[in-house]
Amino acid sequence: MTLAQASTLSRRQLMAAGVGVGLGVTWRPAHALSDELAGALRGFTGGAPTKEGRVLLDIAPLVENGNTVPINLTVQSPMTAADHVQAIAVFNEKNPQREVVSCKLSPASGKAVVATRIRLATTQQLIAVAKMSDGSYWTHTVDVIVTLAACIE
Amino acid sequence: MARTLIHVPTTARKGEVMEIRTLIAHPMETGYRAGSDGRTLPRDIIRRFTCRYNNEVVFSADLYPAISANPYLAFNVVANASGTLSFSWEGDNGFSQTESAALTVA
């Protein structure tokens, strides 16, 4: 009796959990950050609020070879001593390690533009974060489809 | 010594924003890949790049395994005085290399 009860309960719980998961997926907005990305972002900002904008992470939306993917980071900033970009970082969602690159800039940079080439293990989300001299953080989130993954796992 | 490719102007006007492009030959072994014997290959990456302009750091970057082999970095620097630009890469297994370029500012 108790056994039968237990099995019924667990099946009901399972069903409820399934419905919950289904709803969670449908309710997720297009640019909701995954837990991995949100955690990496918190590690960089130290929990400070972030706003979308001012940063542009330029990357091809469809990547044919994940071994070398060109990215271009641009931040709208006058780059003066009073108002400049202090740091730009990029984080990924599904590579073995969340960090991609982290750059430190100064007014001597003149222009907040950085380009490099990265590896992408699979189709995933990328986020670029810029730290301004006034302490504010700006982000840009991009979804990338990767057809040939980088051999990193 | 690893081969490097550095694009930097030799002359510039004062206050001009120069684009600098650097590339260094390096495998950037991630530490997550298996070798031919099935065992994981140890990590061997460049962890840090620094650009100094007359001994003052103007740009630096922390690199991670997600950076492609032969790391390429392009950034900008304002020309304010004649002198030297030095580029240094540091990484695993004691990797360290420094290259420099002379710049004349008119």
List keywords for this structure.
heterodimer, A: 153 residues, alpha+beta, Immunoglobulin-like, 2 domains, three-stranded antiparallel sheet, 2 helices, 24% helix, B: 106 residues, mainly beta, five-stranded mixed sheet, 8 strands, 0% helix, 53% strand
Explain what this protein looks like in three dimensions:
The complex is a heterodimer of chains A (153) and B (106). Chain A is an alpha+beta fold and 153 residues long. Chain A folds into 2 domains: 1-30; 35-146, SoxY domain (Immunoglobulin-like). In chain A, 24% of the residues lie in helices and 36% in strands. Chain A is built from 2 helices and 9 strands; from the N terminus they run ααβββββββββ. Chain A has helices spanning 2-27, 35-45, and strands at 50-52, 55-58, 62-63, 69-75, 85-92, 99-104, 113-118, 124-132, 137-146. In chain A, strands 1, 3, 5, 6, 8 and 9 form a 6-stranded mixed beta sheet that branches. Chain A has a 3-stranded antiparallel beta sheet with strand order 2-4-7, with no helix packed on it. In chain A, a hairpin with a 6-residue loop joins strand 5 and strand 6 (99-104). The N and C termini of chain A lie far apart (49 Å). Chain B is mainly β and 106 residues long. Chain B has one domain: Sandwich (Immunoglobulin-like), CATH 2.60.40.10. Helix content of chain B is 0%, strand content 53%. Chain B is built from no helices and 8 strands. Chain B has strands spanning 4-7, 11-12, 17-24, 46-53, 56-63, 72-78, 83-91, 96-105. In chain B, the strands form 2 sheets. Chain B has a 5-stranded mixed beta sheet with strand order 2-8-7-4-5, with no helix packed on it. Chain B is elongated and about 60 Å long. The model of chain B has no long low-confidence stretch (mean pLDDT 94). Chains A and B meet through strand 6 and strand 7 of A and strand 3, strand 5 and strand 6 of B.
